[in-house]
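Anyone have tokens for Clan AA aspartic protease? Sequence:
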Amino acid sequence: MKCWQFLNNTYRIKQFAINIDLFSKKELKWVKYENVIIDTGFDGDILIPFEDFKNHGFEEALLKETEQFIAETISGEEIILRSALSEMKVNEKKIPIVVETFLENKDIIIGRGVLVNLRLLIDGYKEIICDLSQDKNYSS
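Reply: yep, here.
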């Protein structure tokens, strides 16, 4: 069972974050990201910084315009997302994903689209989040 500590940012509430590997279409290799925040308010798979999206070759592998997604911010603003297919690894479990970004984005977050493929345990007392996906005691 792999576990990660909660992030203690400038926010009042500690944030859940995990480490992931994202497959780079350009470099044809796995790229490590640490402390990626889990955002249950985001219904997509993963949102990455615009520069990373370009640097890892996703710009050349965009989904067709009809398959692009429109996100709505908390303030109600609509943003057209650039989207591409890829894979993510969490604790060696491969998950097919849609990688998304938008112009000038600097954030990286994991959304509910990935969470439905994982079995995570949040332990508030110990301030850890653990991946039970590979644990035989928790298999379905």
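The chain has one domain: 2-138.
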